[in-house]
Amino acid sequence: MLEDYIKQLKPLVLKIFSQDSSGHDISHLERTMNIALLLQKYEGGDRIVIGISAFLHE
Question: 17 phi and psi, to 5 degrees?
Fold first, then answer.
């Protein structure tokens, strides 16, 4: 389910950050999301909300 949302959001995020040179690119967003999901696995919480929030945190 989360993967479906990320698949839909990724093209929009790529477009928004296409001109960004600060290092906050798609790989940064994916790393942040993966770390957040690792924490969620141990601490709990809504996986979809946490994953999308981390992915869109910029």
Answer: -95, 10
- Give the contacts of 57 (CB within 8 A, at least 6 positions apart): 29, 32
Nearest Cα neighbor of 25 from 39, 35, 10 is: 10
The pLDDT tens digits for 21-47 are 777 788 889 999 999 999 999 999 999
User: Under a CB-based contact definition with an 8 Å cutoff, are residues 20 and 35 in contact?
Assistant: no
pTM of the model: 0.86
Which of 7, 6, 26 has the alpha carbon at shortest distance from 18?
Answer: 26
